[in-house]
Amino acid sequence: MTQANAYAATSPDAGLEPITIERRDPGAHDVEIAIEFCGLCHSDIHTVREEWGGITFPLVPGHEIVGTVSHVGAEVTQFAVGDAVGVGCMVDSCRECDSCLEGEEQYCSRGNTGTYGATDPRHDGEMTQGGYSSSIVVDENYVLSIPEGMDRAAAAPLLCAGITTYSPLRYLDVQEGDAVGVIGLGGLGHMAVKLAKALGATVTVFTTSAGKTAAAHELGADAVVLSTDPAAMAAAKDSLNAILDTVAASHDINPYMRTLARDGALIQLGLPSDDMPPVNPGLLIRKRLAYGGSLIGGIAETQEMLDFCAEHNITSDIEIVRADELNEAYDRMVAGDVKYRFVLDNSTL
Questions:
Q1: Which CATH number applies to 2-160+297-348?
Q2: pLDDT tens track for 315-339
Q3: Domain residue ranges of the chain, discontinuous segments joined by +
Q4: CA dist., res. 349 & res. 347, Å (int)
Q5: CATH for 162-293?
Q6: pTM over 0.90
Q7: In sequence order, what E strands does the chain have?
């Protein structure tokens, strides 16, 4: 065992505080990573504040991890000491079910092993601890290569926000000339705009804030629709092939379904802690629409996303924070006061 400096939540209301945690010694197929940056995801807040159910404390959040390989196990073949690497939302899976064998480990039928707050059956049932820490040990099969030249801090959110939006765009086979809508312009939404544009789509951003119009256009959006304006929503009727809904608060999606053309699809990415209003099945039936959801992506698809982003010069728009600013950053995230993703500088731990 080795010790790592970290910031952890000790109760739902206590906030994050410094802590020392133990990391396992690297096994034959393990990679030890000196963490340099870790993105702050809204799901970190939902988790540590127990808005998605009870958890075991203390808990170190963080699943958008970028760093440098500091040690490799004797049988590691994919990485070497000094490599720039990343770790996303999962650190293992059963490796035997259909989903795992098909490269869709995120949908592992036995449940993938989350980067933090998960029981790790492969390592004596220990609870995983995340990336707000100085180091982590992960099986090489769940580690990603960070492309050469990519800004490491700005790459960190790609490991969650990037793949969460890239995977459904690929699943829907979005191509040049398609029309894609993006609901919300936060951490997920701003990545959805960048990725859809890079795939050749025209992009419409739906927002409740008129003040985000200029920002949406700066990111590459072709149109911005104020979703509280009935006339603007009516004008967008039947105009889109696909919509990614990135909003993590309860909201009515029926008005957005009306903006889809025949055979369109709305994919839910945001996970509200409260119930959503029901979807009117008549809207689905009359235009053969689909309403679905999407998690992250498998390891191979996540690497594909990183390489795609490197090719198209895409990273997340970030603000770097120190460890002693984490609790303030959480409050700002809840208030929507971030453009568009906070990233922890792990050297400040």
A1: 3.90.180.10
A2: 999 999 999 999 999 999 999 899 9
A3: 2-160+297-348, 162-293
A4: 6
A5: 3.40.50.720
A6: yes
A7: 2-9, 16-23, 30-39, 65-72, 84-87, 90-92, 113-114, 119-120, 126-127, 135-139, 144-145, 179-183, 202-207, 223-226, 240-245, 260-268, 290-293, 318-321, 341-345
